[in-house]
Amino acid sequence: MKLQDALIAITGGARGLGLAMGQRLGEQGARLALIDTDAQQLDHAVATLGEAGITARAFVANVAEEASVVRTFADIRASMGALDGLVNNAGIVRDGLLVKAKDGKVAKTMDLEQWQRVIDVNLTGVFLCGREAAAAMIEDGCKGVIVNISSISRAGNMGQSNYAAAKAGVAALTVTWGSELARHGIRVGAVAPGFIETEMTASMRDDMLEKLTSGVPLQRLGVPAEIAETVSFIFTNDYFTGRVIECDGGLRL
Fold first, then answer.
1. 59, 115, 163, 235: which is the annotated catalytic residue?
2. Residues 6+ apart with CB under 8 A from 167
3. Which of 4, 56, 88, 247 has the fewest Cβ atoms surrounding its Cβ within 10 A?
């Protein structure tokens, strides 16, 4: 895909990885539909990108709610035209052990809300947005691209039953959709980031951050721009589909 004038929707696009992806794709000429729950952050992101000469519009939506997703993608088509691409980036964490116990006594378990909220946003949200984007591309005759953001945690990670399950599901959806949508000229890929410099890691204690970094063969965290570059590769390589790219500094959980 040539990104010049292509319309790309990015969920979780108001900050962090989503904003970095918007910056990179916008630098290559893409027009952006940024989707997020935070209207104020969205407006700031649109203004920041605008200062760099990148065309972006804000769309407030909850990716875990079907009606919100359907309405948002209809609004994008009505106001910006045919959709060429989607980055399914929106996600949350609600970490915790399945069962926390000591000396044979259970102190706490992961409750259903803690499980369900992560599944709703990180997996069902990907399904809903991917479905609406693919349907729009087919109806508009666009040979588009869908990029899903998985995680190194998809292989399993202590304290992340919910997150790991969701991200494993995202990887499976990528392979499935790559096969199903190829007949319509739609490619689907995924990126599985390792530990990346974000607001969450910036708030960690120095000793915890050092321990986290020491396990990475490259001895550092990744930066959002490196994930954005990987996303750009998937969009622009027309022979890439149905696969997950690991971008994790060589780390294996």
1. 163
2. 122, 150, 151, 153, 154, 192
3. 4
The C-alpha atoms of residue 16 and residue 53 are separated, in whole angstroms, by 19
Q: Is 163 a catalytic residue?
A: yes
Q: Quote the distance between the C-alpha of residue 160 and its chain's center.
A: 17
Nearest to 163 by CA among 83, 75, 97: 97
User: How long a stretch of residues is the chain?
Assistant: 253
Amino acid at 171: A
Are the C-beta atoms of residues 191 and 147 closer than 8 Å to each other?
yes
Residues 6 or more apart in contact with residue 10 via CB below 8 angstroms: 18, 21, 22, 25, 32, 33, 34, 35, 86, 87, 89
Q: What does pLDDT average to in each consecutive run of 10 residues of the chain (253 residues)?
A: 98 96 98 98 98 98 98 98 98 95 97 98 98 98 98 94 98 98 98 88 78 90 97 98 96 76
pTM greater than 0.90 (yes/no)? yes
Q: What pLDDT score was predicted for residue 198?
A: 83
| Cβ density class 150-161: b for 16+ within 10 Å, e for less | bbbbbeeeeebb
